[in-house]
Recover the amino acids of this structure.
């Protein structure tokens, strides 16, 4: 099951691995349609070589309850019709939760990719999605040791917890050559290491007064470094609804596909973000990342990797040029098992489990 932008990178390697073992596994791909713009969905499936979904549920946008309920209503008949031996969901979006609940109520085992992450902040919709999805999943696929601890503390059965590595990094490893050949920086006329990439889309930051503060602080950064900001539709709508002005040195772009986005990151001086997955991708690439959140469900990116938590404090964006000058990424490492082979380990677990 896939539904929203970050799902595609996490699920693509699993689909590829299941297809490699097509003598054993038949795969049915369901897209909930939570994200539906070409730039938020189709471009990723196409670039990552994911086959067209067998079912597109057309769920679209809505309140949390409406979106999750629509996933459940639309997915149930598909699961009844296809009667799978297992359903795989990834990450923490509303589609993940809706699909996991639907499957478990039909007594279909659920595999959760990226299980066990916790921000311990229940005001985040994703935290609720993570906690509930993990609670109803049979196979908990984990990518860092603290996530194992979180699950065991919540009472998960140890035999259901599998430390397999990071499928989002599988995608990065598989796509590395194409990312390096994409030439996005050159196309945009940017100097290597002369710009920062920005992504902001969390409701806590963009749906309230903090967005104007963030844009003003980006204007301060733009005096020293070009600021390149591919804008999520939620953020685009908030900027226009509030009439927020954008400093001349801040280049707003439409959402980018996977290759263009990662290509820009690889050549950047650093990244300013409130995303989850980007904290991991920058850690793998050794690119400094500054995260505009009070907490992270991915602490390994701070303790081992290149991530710095700035807090939910947009004014701190203005410190980024100084922080970049002080940042030493030499000591940063890639977490264990972030090696490009997580999906193989997941399918090995599945094969054992299904006998
Ligand atoms: C969702 C996830 C979030 C993830 C993010 C990545 C939940 C609760 N949130 O947030 O965890 O980090 O995806 O992007 O699942 N929209 C479009 N076109 C689209 C999709 C959305 O214009 O293809 C607009 C709509 O106005 C919509 C808004 O974006 O109302 C928000 O979309 P939604 O899927 O509700 O949440 P995201 O903010 O994208």
């Amino acid at each position: 099951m896939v539904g929203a932008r970050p799902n595609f990178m996490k699920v693509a390697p699993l689909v590829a691995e299941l297809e490699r073992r097509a003598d054993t596994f038949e795969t049915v791909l369901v897209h909930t349609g939570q994200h539906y713009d070409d730039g938020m969905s189709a471009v990723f499936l196409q670039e990552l070589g994911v086959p067209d979904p067998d079912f597109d549920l057309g769920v679209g946008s809505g309140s949390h309850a409406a979106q999750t309920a629509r996933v459940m209503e639309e997915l149930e008949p598909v699961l009844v019709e296809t009667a799978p031996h297992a359903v795989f969901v990834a990450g923490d979006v509303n589609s993940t939760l809706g699909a996991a609940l639907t499957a478990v109520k039909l007594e279909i085992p659920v595999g959760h990719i990226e299980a066990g992450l916790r921000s311990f902040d229940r005001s985040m919709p994703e935290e609720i999605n993570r906690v509930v999805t993990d609670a109803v999943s049979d196979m908990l696929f984990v990518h860092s040791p603290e996530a194992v601890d979180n699950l065991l503390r919540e009472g998960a059965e140890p035999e259901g917890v599998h430390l397999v590595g990071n499928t989002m990094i599988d995608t990065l490893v598989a796509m590395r050559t194409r990312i390096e050949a994409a030439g996005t920086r050159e196309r945009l006329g940017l100097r290597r290491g002369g710009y920062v990439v920005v992504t902001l889309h969390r409701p806590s930051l963009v749906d309230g007064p903090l967005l104007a503060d963030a844009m003003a602080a980006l204007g301060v950064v733009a005096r020293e470094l070009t600021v390149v900001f591919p804008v999520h539709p939620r953020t685009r709508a908030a900027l226009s609804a509030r009439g927020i002005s954008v400093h001349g040195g801040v280049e707003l772009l439409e959402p980018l596909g996977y290759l263009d986005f990662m290509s820009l990151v690889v050549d950047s001086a650093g990244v300013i973000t409130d995303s989850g997955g980007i904290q991991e991708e920058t850690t793998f690439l050794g690119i400094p990342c500054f995260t505009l959140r009070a907490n992270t469900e991915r602490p390994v990116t701070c303790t081992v990797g290149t991530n710095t938590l700035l807090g939910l404090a947009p004014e701190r964006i203005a410190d980024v040029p100084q922080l970049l000058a002080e940042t030493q990424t030499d000591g940063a490492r890639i977490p264990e098992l972030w090696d490009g082979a997580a999906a193989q380990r997941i399918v090995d677990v599945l094969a054992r489990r299904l006998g």
User: Anything to note?
Assistant: Residues 7 and 90 are 6 Å apart (CA to CA). The domain at 176-326 is CATH 3.40.50.2000 (Rossmann fold).
